[in-house]
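Schema walkthrough. Field components (list of strings):
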Amino acid sequence: MAQINTTQYALLGMLSFQPMSGYDIKKIIDHSISFFWSENYGHIYPVLKKMEEQELVTKQTVHTEGNPSKNLYSITDKGKALFTRWLNAPVQKKIIRLEILLKLFFGFMTDIDNMIGKVTEERKSAQAILDELAEIENHIKSNQQEALKDKPPYPLLCLNYGKFFYRAVTQWCDETIDILRKEKAKEE
Amino acid sequence: MAQINTTQYALLGMLSFQPMSGYDIKKIIDHSISFFWSENYGHIYPVLKKMEEQELVTKQTVHTEGNPSKNLYSITDKGKALFTRWLNAPVQKKIIRLEILLKLFFGFMTDIDNMIGKVTEERKSAQAILDELAEIENHIKSNQQEALKDKPPYPLLCLNYGKFFYRAVTQWCDETIDILRKEKAKEE
DNA sequence: GCGCCCATGTAACTAGTTACATGATTCA
DNA sequence: TGAATCATGTAACTAGTTACATGGGCGC
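Field assembly_structure (string):
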């Protein structure tokens, strides 16, 4: 089975909220789903172009005062149909590569302090993301879109995943650092 | 900053246990770190070849009775040095893309039942991995390598991450399914 | 004048996946 | 006889990253 272009679906999804430019989409992604999704311009622009060719989106160049002109993309019916098909298809199962665990697995090749440091860093990152999630939560709650009022709070459910996940990570870090410290004491 | 070839380091790490063929490495990965790392032959073989050219590993063709001949790769001092440098370098921070959350985020575009189904599937997968982790745990504990006896139990620490993570996922799934069911009831 | 934000894009590259091809042996 | 395991590899491809290039407006 072929690999699917998830970026394409992320873009179509964003455009199903409202017409936007590539730049807008990136900004929104960075401020709403950044803790589980990222895109970069070098991928966004070519994919938008490709989707335009396939008539999944249409482009409209808009000029506004004081700003450079921007390309507003709108999702077409064909795009909506494709997006809905993807939404209904099963989630692709793929292994999430965790570099921290790869390093830890080979920890025997280095000294314990290095590994304690790595896990400590990981804990810091997890805490930082947890803090960021709180900010995103405020952003979502204040930007509640009228049209979605009667729908389930999907963005908050996603956010909740982040909370569960990164809380678990901090707990694991604490436990792991503890074990490694004891191992270090044994060594001496 | 350039992207680093993590596959290369996964292979070097495996070869730092003992000399192995590409086939062996794949098998070991699938039986020990598969819940957070995967590799496929189409990537392993070319990377081994490239590393041989760079003198990070050496190849030795071995013939055994009843089996096809295999290419045993050994890590060189240069390879060890590079691997150690990587082990000491900070873990690359990159966003883990979670397709389940991408779909859930755009849940408003489809019906609640679809989303309940997706989360239910996710819960099943998480539980399956949790079961798999128990098996891997047995495998690790029975295959304890003598040489690593006095080292911290790194493989078990990795496994523990999996337990924390997937336990958190199942909890999130339960909570999420509950919320969605209530939203559905409200709808009717 | 400098740096930041707005805004779009391409080129070169690396990483990773899938499908295909080959061929021996073992076990039911 | 057919499936599974052992074993290696390539070709074609898709996805994604990084660096580079451009240029206007705004605020300090």
